[in-house]
Design brief:
It contains 11 helices and 24 strands. By secondary structure, the protein is an alpha+beta fold. It folds into 3 domains: about 110 residues; about 200 residues, Jelly Rolls (Sandwich), CATH 2.60.120; about 70 residues, Phage tail protein beta-alpha-beta fold, CATH 3.55.50.30. The strands form 3 sheets. It has a 19-stranded mixed sheet that branches. Strands 21-24-23 form a 3-stranded mixed sheet. It is globular, with a radius of gyration of 24 Å.
Length: about 400
């Protein structure tokens, strides 16, 4: 009997012989649809943990799996059910093909309908990358990227240097002057503050901070989205002022704050420790690891003037911080919410030809794939995408 988990793991590492591959393909043809579907999910999860640079995905195996899922009919004959059933391949593609470049190229080589080919332009849009802008106390601006290593400036006695993908301040500051790091669309960067606190800044975000923490607290100001690993200091609590609408108070903890103006809520997600979230209309709540505090954004309040409190919900912290680890996590995410993430990362404009398709996505995708790779997956999920210049037009099929 074939040990499917063992041989799938060997496929993921490209360690199977020609004989083993032939035997596995023959066995694959004997499986019912449900088992083929489960097999795809298992293989996709394996690929998430395999470095595609050292063990690229096995194109032949994925082609065989896709061939089996495409040729088998489900019990319910309606086209809609078949499309939903077969879209499971797309969900695995979201995990596997976009993390293993080999599968992406296999998909791109397949014959496509004329309308699908419209989505993949000859001039593709590259994904975002590491980079930011640093505004100094005197108003001058320095471009930051990982290509420039070493000291770049001194501010208030503190030296700021780039190390890898981080801007790092030493603890030698003598004056309390403020710098601002900002990321445009298509950029993200990291920051180590003078107290040792680490900050990951997502696209279209900013953080304003002193080059020396003094007094009774450590205060920074954030817009957009940032992830914090706060250095513990019980004598000097750490505070984050969020878009002038909320504050987060913490002693030492790891948390994520999402405060984009076009999102429905300002969300604070706690991974470790304990934080107190205060809104401009509420005294505040304390949240625990695994919880998220949600404050209605200004636009969301317009239809409900009584929506001024803070709602605390249990949440998937892995999904909340996936961006920091170089991933899109679209598990059960509405299409429009996912598209807002793509707008910021690919620096594109998204418009809807008619109503927004009522579709929820699934799977994890690397943020390093080009836009055309994502469009292939969206097409199979029933979303027609047309890219012209930097505008992506979306409509349901």
């Amino acid at each position: 009997m074939i040990n499917k988990s063992e041989i799938l793991a060997r496929f993921a590492r490209n360690e199977v012989s020609a004989e083993e591959r032939a035997a596995f393909y023959a066995w694959l043809q004997t499986l019912p649809p449900a088992e083929v579907e489960a097999l795809m999910d298992e293989y996709g999860e394996m690929l998430v943990h395999i470095d595609p640079a050292t063990a690229p995905a096995d194109e032949a195996l994925l082609a065989a799996i896709h061939r089996e899922i495409s040729t088998q009919e489900v019990d319910q004959p309606t086209p809609l059910i078949r499309r939903i059933y077969r879209s499971r391949w797309s969900q695995v593609a979201a995990v596997a093909l976009l993390l293993g470049a080999g599968i992406y190229f296999w998909k791109a080589r397949q014959p496509q309908p004329a309308e699908a080919r419209l989505a993949v332009q000859t001039t593709d849009i590259a994904p975002g990358k590491e980079g930011a802008l640093l505004t100094l106390a005197d108003g001058s601006v320095i471009t930051l990227d990982s290509a420039h290593i070493g000291q770049i400036t001194q501010q208030g006695g503190a030296t700021a240097s780039i190390s890898g993908n981080s801007l790092v301040y030493d603890k030698n500051g003598r004056e309390n002057v403020y710098n601002t790091m900002s990321t445009p669309n298509g950029r993200q960067f990291q920051l180590v503050l003078p107290d040792g606190t680490k900050v990951w800044l997502n696209a279209a975000s900013s953080i304003r901070y002193p080059t020396l923490f003094s007094g009774k607290e450590r205060l920074v100001m954030v817009t957009g989205e940032a992830y914090f690993e706060v250095a513990a200091n019980a004598d000097m609590p750490f505070r984050v002022k969020v878009s002038d609408k909320a504050e987060i108070e913490v002693l030492g903890t790891n948390f994520n704050v999402n405060a984009y103006n076009n999102e429905e809520t300002i969300s604070t997600t706690l991974l470790t420790g304990s934080v107190r979230v205060v809104s401009d209309r509420n005294k505040g709540v304390i949240i625990k690891p695994g919880q998220q505090a949600q404050i209605a954004n200004a636009a969301a309040r317009q239809g409900n003037q009584h929506n001024t409190g803070i709602e605390v919900v249990n949440t998937d912290v892995e999904k909340a911080v996936a961006w920091k680890d170089g991933l899109f996590n679209f598990d059960n995410v509405p299409l429009q919410e996912a598209m807002r993430q793509l707008e910021r990362w690919y620096d594109i404009r998204i418009v809807y030809e008619k109503d927004v398709p009522d579709i929820k996505l699934a799977g994890k995708m690397t943020k390093q794939v080009t836009l055309s790779g994502l469009l292939i997956v969206l097409e199979e999920l029933g979303v027609h995408c047309k890219l012209e210049a930097n505008t992506l037009t979306i409509t349901a099929k």
